[in-house]
Every structure is written in C-alpha cells, then in structure tokens.
Amino acid sequence: MREMSHPHLPSHLTRLAQRYGRIYTLRCGNSRDLVSGGGCSVSLGDYSQPWRAQRRLVHGALQRCSHTALHSTIQRQALLLREESQVLIGYNGSAVDLSEDFTVAASNVITMLMFEKEYDKESAELQRLHSCLNKIVSLWGSPWISALDSFPLLRKLPNRPFSRLLEEVARRDDIIGTLLKEFKLTDTHLHMATVDLLIGGTETTAAWLNWAVAFLLHRPQVQSRVYEEMCEVLEDRYPTYSDRYRLPILSALISEVLRMRPVAPLAVPHRALRDSSIAGYFIPKDTVIIPNLFGAHHDPAVWSEPYSFRPERFLEAGGGCARSLLAFGGGARLCLGEAVAKMELFLFTAYLLRDFQFVSCGKEASLPDLMGEASVVLKVKSYQVIAVPRPDGPNQDRAEDHRTHQN
C-alpha cells in the first residue's frame, strides 16, 4: 500500500524496476499486483464476453467515422484556436496558461463527433462537464481509491475521497444522461462508452498539447526546425494529415513527447484469467498486471539518454525506435481512440506551430516544470507562455480549401 501511494507513482515504479528488475510483484493485503516496466466501462471493465462485444461496437463506430468529417472537425478546432475572436491571437502577446483552451479544443472534437455540439470556453454546460471530469480523473488516481481494489472492506469504512468520487460520478452521469436524452438514447453501455470517449478524448489530448509546448519552451530550436520544415514542404498552405510522411521532424517531435510523457503512464490494469507466465515469471490466476508505460519509455536498455528530450532520436537509424513506442498501450486494451488521437496530435501541433512561436516569459525560472503531476493522466504543472503570431502564416483562403489536399 505504501508503494502505491507515492505522489509520482510512474517514476517511483520505474525506480523500483531499476532495483528489482523489469518485472516485479507488489503485495497489497491478499492481492498480488505485478508491475511490468518493459513493455460496464470499455476502458476499465472486466475482460468478458459483454465487454468484448461493447468494445467491438465502439471501435467499429470510430472506424466508420468518415476520415473527411474527422479531419474537418479537428481542422476547425485548430483554426478556432488561432482566430482573433477566439483564443491565441486575442491574447495579444500576453503570458497565459493555455491548458483550458487546449481542453476546450480537444473536447469539441469529441462532442462534435458524438453530439454535433460545439462549445465556447464560457459555456456553462462545458464548464460543468470539464469540472466534473477533472475531479474524477484527479480522485481516480488517489491511493485511497486504488486501495479499494486490494482491500474491498474499506468500502464500508468512512473514506472522504471515495465519497467525493461517487458524488462526481453522479454529477457526471446526470450531465451525460441529459446529452444522451436529446438523442433519445438511454442504454447503460452506451452511457459508459460516452463517458470513456469524453474522458479519454479530452483529458489526454489536452494534457499532451500542454506537454508539447512545455518541452518546446525548453528546446526552442526544435520549434524552429519544425516551422522551417513546414515552410519548405507546404509553402503557403496548412498541413493535412496525409502530409505526415513528408514532415518527419514534426512527426519525430510528436513521438518524442509521447515517449517522454505518456499521458496515461500506467496503462489500464490487466487481470490474469488463468495461471500464465511473462518473460519466464509465473503469474498466478487473478494477479493484477500494471503495465508501466512510463518505465518502458525510459528504459536505458531500449532508449539512449532516456531522460533527455531528443526528437532527433526518431530520425536516426530509419526511425526504428518508433517500434518501441507504447504510448497507446497494447493488446486487447489498446486505446480505442488511437487513430483519432494521432490525427488530433498531428493537426493541432502542426497548426499551432505553423501560426505561432511559443516563447517563455523571459526568465529561466519561468520555464515549465517537466516532472508533472501524476494521476490517472500525467499532466504538466500549470505554467504561462506567450504565443507570438507568425508574420507570414498560411493563406487563409487556402486553409478553407484544404480539403482538396486530403486523402
């Protein structure tokens, strides 16, 4: 229990792996939690026939989502981040915290795909939803919540974090229920699938964008290289997702931020359905396996200088190390929205760096803290940044007509 209550659990489990090996066991009461550092909810439900059926339905729906519709939705949100009446240009060079703006943009992609609803930052409905989801994610990572899996009897004892979590879940269900009723949809499985997509598609994407800007403030020359590459390859137009193979420096930046700070650093726990083995280690039935993606991404046996931010590593040796990137998990629990997330990360990053140069507030002490705050989602600590508009941004008419460049 003490080991699992560390304030930055992914880093702590990674240090334990350096002491005990890549695969080791933690005992919490009568339960066994195996940590692997080398490699009715869709995301958290038990592996079962109903779970597999629900996952297939959600995955199929995402796959059937039109590439053009998804691309246009993300492109619109990326452009709205730029517009004077909306976000970055309107700040007029002031130092600001962009986390809420990134959250709104990422959330609107999901709500547009699911409900055809778009919100602005001042929307009371959006504020209620985000406040609720933020509190759930924060409480979810509390050791007082994690302990309930190992010590079920604790559910019968006073537990303020657990009580608060139940309160926020009730608020969440009320908000989601209202949205679904507009479409005359009330199925419980559909309700939970909606919750998974909203949390997974909003919190993680917004957290990643904040990490990307934070790392670029520490290495501004990378930002310059990405911008120069886009100017050379794209000339006066905005990028499309099909341009990703022509923009290797941008793609390397995205991969390196995913490696350095996987936003879900501890993948969804797995439970062994039968006696099994991993890398020669015996795994008894019902053992909980915790894949430590953060540890896998900082393994010196796989990555040279694992704690250094070096996007160029993905440009070396034919980019072979991309095969060791596990940012979206793997196996049956592979992130449902991987394809959507990859398009979001590419387009949001490309549009932001094509239109703006991100600079620190002038003092070295003002650079973001890169350790972050670890919960279910690994988030950078709040920081301020100045978004300076590029004087020679792409032609806006070409941006509106960019669909002609899509595949």
Automatic annotation (TrEMBL):
Pfam families: p450. It comes from the Eukaryota. GO terms for cellular component: endoplasmic reticulum membrane. InterPro entries: Cyt_P450, Cyt_P450_CS, Cyt_P450_E_grp-I, Cyt_P450_sf. Keywords: Heme, Iron, Lipid-binding, Membrane, Metal-binding, Monooxygenase, Oxidoreductase, Steroid-binding, Steroidogenesis. Heme binds at residue 335. GO terms for biological process: hormone biosynthetic process; progesterone metabolic process; steroid biosynthetic process. GO terms for molecular function: heme binding; iron ion binding; steroid 17-alpha-monooxygenase activity; steroid 21-monooxygenase activity; steroid binding. Residues 395-407 have a biased composition (Basic and acidic residues). Residues 388-407 are annotated as: Disordered. It is found in: Endoplasmic reticulum membrane. It is a peripheral membrane protein. Its EC number is 1.14.14.16. Belongs to the cytochrome P450 family. This is Steroid 21-hydroxylase. It comes from Muraenolepis orangiensis (Patagonian moray cod).
